[in-house]
Design brief:
Low-confidence stretches: none
Strand content: 25-35%
CATH superfamily of the largest domain: Fructose-1,6-Bisphosphatase, subunit A, domain 1
Bound molecules: D-MYO-inositol-1-phosphate, calcium ion
Order of helices and strands: HEEHEEEHEEEEEEHEHEHEEH
Radius of gyration: 17 Å
CATH topology of the largest domain: Fructose-1,6-Bisphosphatase, Chain A, domain 1
CATH architecture of the largest domain: 2-Layer Sandwich
Length: about 260
C-alpha cells in the first residue's frame, strides 16, 4: 500500500483551502446537526474533494472524516480529516478557520497539516522531524508562569445542556493569566501553541479530526500534549486536550486538577 508524504497532505490542504477561500462571505446553505452545531455546503464540498483524492491516490486507506463519517479501509493507514475547522466562524464571515488533515501509520500519528487559507499559513509536521509554518521551523513559547501567559480554549456544542461546559476551568484561568482567548478552531488553537502565539490550550469534548493534526504539530514544536487526565492518547475518547510547553503544562494541569469549588 502506498504511503503519503507530507507534501501530499500539504497539497490536499491547499486545494481544500481554495474551496473555503472561494466560498468565504458568500451566501451559505446552513444545516443544523445539533442546536448550535452547524454545517455548510462548503464543509461538504471541501470534504468531498479531500476524500476523492485520498481514495484515488491511496486506495484501501481508512479515513475518519467529520461530515460523511469517512471510508472503511486498512487500520494501518488512517487519515483524520476536518474539511473546515471553525465552521461557526465561517458561517458568520469571521476569517478564522482551517483545513485539518493528519495521517497515522501503524497506529502512530506520522504526518499532519493544518492550513489557514485567509492568512495563507500552512502548518505541518512529520513525526521526529519538527513542525513548520510555511517552511519555517516552529517552537513553543518560553513562558513558564501562568501570570505571563496567554491561553486559548473552546466550548463544546452541547454546552447548553452539559455540566462539563468548561466554564469552571475558564473562570480559574481567566483570573491567573494575561487572558484566555476563544478562536473557534481547535486545529488552529494547537498550531498557535506550536508557533508560541499562545502559551497553552485546553478543551473538553472534542473529536479525533479536531486534534489529530494540530496535536502532532504542537508536539513536534515542543509542547506536551495529553488529554485532561494526563494520558498521552488524546486522539481517542474521552476526547479532551491539554497542550503547553512542559513547564507551563504542569502548572495548567495543577489548576485543572483542583477540586471543584476551588
Ligand atoms: C469545532 C472547533 C471549535 C471547538 C469545537 C469543534 P468545527 O470544530 O474546533 O474550536 O471548540 O469543539 O467542534 O465544528 O468547527 O469543525
Ligand atoms: Ca472541527
Ligand atoms: Ca468541521
Amino acid at each position: 500500500m502506498t504511503n503519503p508524504t507530507l507534501n501530499d497532505l500539504e497539497q490536499l490542504a491547499r486545494q481544500a483551502g481554495k474551496i473555503l477561500r472561494a466560498g468565504y462571505e458568500t451566501k451559505h446553505q446552513v444545516d443544523y446537526k445539533g442546536t448550535i452545531d452547524l454545517v455548510t455546503e462548503i464543509d461538504r464540498q471541501s470534504e468531498e474533494l479531500i476524500l476523492a483524492e485520498i481514495q484515488s491516490r491511496f486506495p484501501g486507506h481508512h479515513v475518519l472524516a467529520e461530515e460523511s463519517g469517512g471510508v472503511d479501509g486498512d487500520n494501518a493507514h488512517v487519515w483524520y480529516v476536518d474539511p473546515l475547522d471553525g465552521t461557526v466562524n465561517y458561517a458568520h464571515n469571521v476569517p478564522i478557520f482551517s483545513v485539518s488533515i493528519a495521517y497515522a501509520c501503524g497506529g502512530e500519528m506520522c504526518l499532519a497539516t493544518v492550513y489557514d487559507p485567509m492568512r495563507d499559513e500552512l502548518f505541518s509536521a512529520e513525526r521526529g522531524r519538527g513542525a513548520r509554518l510555511n517552511g519555517r521551523p516552529l517552537s513553543v513559547s518560553p513562558v513558564t508562569d501562568l501570570a505571563h501567559s496567554l491561553l486559548v480554549t473552546g466550548f463544546p456544542y452541547n454546552m447548553w445542556s452539559t455540566p462539563a461546559d468548561n466554564l469552571q476551568y475558564f473562570g480559574r484561568f481567566a483570573k491567573m493569566t494575561q487572558g484566555v482567548r476563544r478562536l473557534g478552531s481547535a486545529a488552529l488553537d494547537l498550531c498557535y501553541v506550536a508557533a508560541g502565539r499562545f502559551d497553552g490550550y485546553w478543551e473538553l469534548s472534542l473529536q479525533p479530526w479536531d486534534v489529530a493534526a494540530g496535536g502532532l504539530i504542537a508536539e513536534e514544536a515542543g509542547a506536551r500534549v495529553t488529554n485532561l487526565d494526563g494520558k498521552p492518547n488524546y486522539v481517542s475518547p474521552p476526547q479532551s486536550v491539554l497542550a503547553a510547553p512542559p513547564a507551563l503544562y504542569d502548572k495548567m494541569a495543577a489548576v485543572i486538577q483542583r477540586p471543584n469549588g476551588n
